[in-house]
Each structure stands twice: as C-alpha cells, then as structure tokens.
Write a structure and sequence with these properties.
Elements lengths: L6 H7 L10 H9 L9 E8 L11 E5 L10 E4 L2 H10 L3 E3 L1 H8 L7 E4 L4 H5 L2 H4 L17 H10 L1 E5 L5 E8 L4 H16 L11 E8 L5 E2 L2 H5 L3
Parallel strand pairs: 3-4, 3-5
Antiparallel strand pairs: 1-7, 1-8, 2-6, 8-9
InterPro entries: Ribosom_uL1_bac-type, Ribosomal_uL1, Ribosomal_uL1-like, Ribosomal_uL1/biogenesis, Ribosomal_uL1_3-a/b-sand, Ribosomal_uL1_CS
Pfam family, one: Ribosomal_L1
GO molecular function, one term: tRNA binding
Length: about 230
C-alpha cells in the first residue's frame, strides 16, 4: 500500500519542480522555501557516486571544514594523556580522558558528537570500537581524527568539520548547514564539500564519478542537482 502523503508534504511538493535539474545557486535559494518544521532544519546533500565501496581503494572517506560551519554545536571527546590532554582541554574539548573515557563509553554514557584520539590511544579506543563504530564515531586518520595535532583537530570539529563516508550503495549523505543560513553561505558550503569529495576520486573508478545528487531539508522533498556542475567543481 502506498504511503499517504500528508497535507504538509503536499504543499511542499507544490513548490518543487520534480522534472527540473537545479543549479547550486537556485537550489540553495529554493531549499530555504521548503522550511516547514518548528526547528531549524538541517540542509543535507546526497551524492550517488560511480564507485564500488566493496573495493578498499574506492571506499571514499574524508573530512572538510565548511567555510560557514554546520550550524550545530558539536561536542567533542578526546582520547589523550599528559600534554596532549592539556592541549585538548585548552582547545575546548568537552570530554578528555583515556581509561576513564573508555569506561564511560562502555557504560553507555556517550554525550558527544565526535571522537578524536592521539595515535598512541588507538589500542584503547579499539576496545570500544564496537560501540563507537556503528554510531559513526570511530576516529580515523582519513578524517583527521587520529592525530597528534589535537588542538587543531578540536578547533576544526568546533568550527564545522563534516566527516563523510560512502555507504554500501555508493552514496554520501552530508549536512551542509541549516535552513536559517543565508543562501549564499549554503552555496559556499556545498562547493567546499563537493570539491573535497572530487579530490577523493579513485583512479580505478569507472564512468561518471557523481551520477546523481539531491539537496533537501530534514523534513522536505528533495531537489535534483546538476551532477555535471558538481563534477566540474575542482
């Protein structure tokens, strides 16, 4: 049985041309007109890539600090000891620890959005990997979250770093701001993210790298983006 479309969604669909391919500038302005929730909805982009994630060299993963941030207050946890722990605290990390932090996680107390760790802490972090992994919180060198530059990593996280990873279907979902953002700021964030993803294109990928792309809000229909425009963002 087909899912019934609510009156709210019906009104939003009337604002969207399902057959139209939107350029980034037009999409950034149009998506703002689709706000309908009582909260500041997240603007999300979805990119269908021409890669096969089953091959390690085509597992696209990375991070980028959006020029205008994400609009979200990110809570950061850091696994570090000694001087590096002090650096993390000074940089504004919300939770800093080692064995105690691991025990906190094992106990189900996960009140943070990103985890950073110094390389020497990864053996300890690995013990709680089964908990952090499924939540997308496992530190990784490719996203700059396993590093000795703790202060920089915390600063990036607080400034609007977005970590992205292609899923099993070859799709990347990522936030690019809030609907309250100025359209120009949304556009700048989208360009920064797409340029970063384009740099990750593997030499072994066949055919078109970005096959399809959409832009939407947390609770809105999606706008089809011009994939070629995105591919040309270098």
């Amino acid at each position: 049985m087909a899912k019934k479309i609510t009156k709210r969604m019906q009104k939003l669909l009337e604002k969207v041309d399902c057959k139209k391919i939107y350029d980034i500038t037009t999409a950034s302005a149009t998506v703002k007109s689709l706000a309908s929730a009582k909260f500041d909805e997240t603007v999300e982009i979805a990119l269908s890539l021409g890669v096969d994630p089953r091959h390690a060299d085509q597992m696209i993963r990375g991070a980028v600090v959006l020029p205008n941030g994400t609009g979200k207050n990110v809570r950061v946890a850091v696994f570090a000891k000694g001087v590096k722990a002090d650096e993390a605290k000074a940089a504004g990390a919300d939770v800093v620890g080692d064995e105690d932090l691991a025990e906190q996680i094992k106990g189900g107390e996960i009140n943070f959005d990103m985890v950073i760790a110094t390389p020497d802490m990864m053996a300890l972090v690995g013990k709680v990997g089964r908990i952090l992994g499924p939540k997308g919180l496992m530190p990784n060198p490719k996203t700059g979250t396993v590093t000795m530059e703790v202060s920089k990593a915390v600063s990036n996280a607080k400034s609007g770093q977005v970590n992205y990873r292609v899923d099993k279907k070859g799709i990347i979902h990522a936030p690019v701001g809030k609907v309250s953002f100025d359209a120009k700021k949304l556009e700048e964030n989208i360009i920064a993210l797409v340029r970063n993803i384009n740099k990750q294109k593997p030499a072994t990928a066949k055919g078109k790298y970005i096959k399809n792309a959409t832009l939407s809000l947390t609770m809105s229909p999606s706008l089809k983006l011009d994939a070629q425009e995105l591919i040309d963002m270098k």
